[in-house]
Design a protein that fits this description.
Blueprint: H1 10-13, H2 25-62, H3 69-82, H4 84-98, H5 100-120, H6 124-127, H7 130-158, H8 166-194, H9 198-204, H10 206-210, H11 212-223, H12 230-238, H13 245-275, H14 278-284, H15 294-322, H16 324-346, H17 351-367, H18 372-377, H19 385-399, H20 404-415, H21 419-437, H22 452-455
Amino acid sequence: MSTPTSTPGPAARSGFTPTGTIATAADRRRVVFATVVGTTVEWYDFFIYATAVGLVFGQLFFAPLGANSALIGFATVGVSFLFRPLGAFLAGHLGDRLGRKLVLMWTLILMGVATALIGLLPTYETIGLAAPVILVLLRIVQGISAGGEWGGAVLMAVEHAPKTRRGAFGASPQIGVPLGLLLASGVMALMAMIAPGEAFLAWGWRVPFLLSVVLILVGWYVRRRVEESPVFTELAERREKAHMPIVQLFRKHAALVIIAAFVFAGNNAVGYMTTGGYIQNYATNPEGPLGFDREPVLWAVAGSAVTWLVTTLIAGFLSDRIGRRTTYIAGWILQLAGVFALFPLVNTGSIGLLFAGLAILTIGLGLTYGPQAALYAELFPASIRFSGVSISYAIGAILGGAFAPTIATALVQATGSTMSVTWYLAGMTVLGLVATLLLRDRSGIPLDPDHEAEQSVSPIVGTGRR
């Protein structure tokens, strides 16, 4: 790597300091708004599939495959996670070489096209086995897009932020997840009202997928108006971009990638009880213990997305005050309490208590998700940061949420009790807590290229300080 120069780069001359601080409040608002809008659109597209799997895809695309159609449907949710690392590798390499903004524009388009095509896809009754095959292929495209989206959105937010407000800025891509869930559940619930019963199966479910076209146009317009990350701008000017960022990442920071992945896995497995469609399917299954109508369950999930959004936002601000690590530890404890409260409340047969169980769960979920953007960005050196955060996130998604709904369904089928699911989710929460305890808090560490040596010091507890 070349020796850093003291000459101000274009980022500094355009109003950015080398630490990535934006000069004006208007610039700050534009970055935050663009991040929230873009990630909300991206995750709406991703979650609308999981919601549809829990409600209709088993019947429309997988029913001829037998009694395990629901299990197979949830498995297709997990398949997309297996391709997130591919998206993360591609986006990480391109993001560290060509810039964060370019990658974000293309992940948005890729996700939107795949989602809209699902809305146009004929069912098994029309084209036979080709229907589930094409559906899975389009879900894989969604997975590749999601694998590249998060890292770019995180770095655009955090690398633009003042160092004392990275948690708050980093919460902007994080709240895109509950906003996407809220939007997906809300639109599905609205369509269940407009086209109830057989009409929902015939065409009502397609409208939320086709709506993606409009949302993508909005997201594209907003994102293209945002400046490139000042950290990447400085790297580009100094010609300090890593030539093989992924190779450098695994040669020097492989253990850190795995530990960071475990942090996310502990949150993701629990979160995918709703974002993966499991609760929706469990509560509405006419052959199950509850047999609720679709509409009230979807509204309950949408309501819990609001509480998740609020706690995620609070956690970002809180992590700027008490540190990322402390916020996470408190979150894991509250998440564990929420896990043990979830199914006893859901199984009462009351929609109000089902919502209460989900809302309680979101307190811990928010506290273990809001600080993640800032935590991840502060773990990796500037020149390989996009690769580091994207790949850690993608691996964590596989270990956590990829097959959480499938595992939960299989556990209930094998044991006849949701208590087995509770212990599975509790184990994943404890895994996240242990991984968090293995990391030092690096809140406020400089993120610019001038401090690459400091950033390269391992944050793993017990490792030598170079």
